[in-house]
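Internal ticket - ligand job 322, pyridoxal-5'-phosphate:
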Amino acid sequence: EAFERACCERLGVRHAIGVSSGPDALLVALMALGIGPGDEVIVPTYSFFATAGVVARLGAAPVFVDVREDDFGMDAAALAAAIGPRTRAVVPVHLFGQCADVDAIARVAGDIPVIEDAAQAFGARYRERAAGGLGAAACFSFFPAKNLGALGDAGLVTTDDDALAAKIRRLRVHGAEPKYHHHVVGGNFRLDPLQAALLSVKLAHLDAWTHARRAHAAFYDEALASRVTTPRALEDRFHVYNQYVVRVRSRDAVRAALAAEGVETMVYYPRPLHLQPCFAGGAQGRFPVAEALARDSLALPVFPELRREERAHVAGALLAHA
Ligand SMILES: *Cc1c(COP(=O)(O)O)cnc(C)c1O
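stdout (structure tokens):
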């Protein structure tokens, strides 16, 4: 509860509900909206699997849309074309630590609830408002690879909606209220108190860590922009750089060359969601921006503890091979 209160204060929201993981945050938020078989939920096709996986697990259909070239977030025009009579929610993703264009998305969504997938964006801001307070609800992951990471799995749902918060709190404990009286079928979605205690300690350091990530990003921008496509940090957003993702031709060869020089990189994500075998039916070529990103995106080391000589080595190696 102390961690939940700290998150409310930090994010400027009425409710912060600690849960067992990032995917469980998304799952329980969609369950609280009553989403199930016959429903559709619109998600960007360029994201981590969980964004769409939770929709399918509820028996609903994920409907994919392409992302934008500038912020890698959901494209509002594509969203407009994808909305249909069965659409029950829209889930934009704040990819790599920069918020999606949620005002444009909300305008198109109208009365359809917008649920932020803020798993990579704790501390990010959009037009001076914190990620987590930009939609009907927001879902965070504290998986260790996130910019605010636990020692294992943990997650959080935030909302300003009292009724939705009450439903989520109930679903978190098997739908019981009081204990052993089950009104709905929930699950064990509780946040482990040891993870919460650790996160409370780490939360106090997050601003310093974010500052370090942004300094690394500024260094890379300056060092690399002449040779590769560096990420666009948009003026109306505060990017927290959970990932620093450049775009390079012959990405896999560049990646291997960097590895040979001791630079570990990652590819987020090599296969868009509409082309995953479990969502069979997606045709190649339908979502050109996502498919291009899957081919040429490369994430460089940007963790807070990265030293000056290390980041210079990364930049030098990339300039030599890109
Ligand atoms: C990490 C992440 C999640 C949650 O997944 P975990 O299993 O907690 O790692 C959901 N959506 C996105 C976009 C993520 O990056």
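Auto-summary: Residues 21-23, 47-48, 50-51, 93, 117, 119-120, 141, 143 surround pyridoxal-5'-phosphate (CB under 6 Å). The first strand starts at residue 15 and ends at 19.
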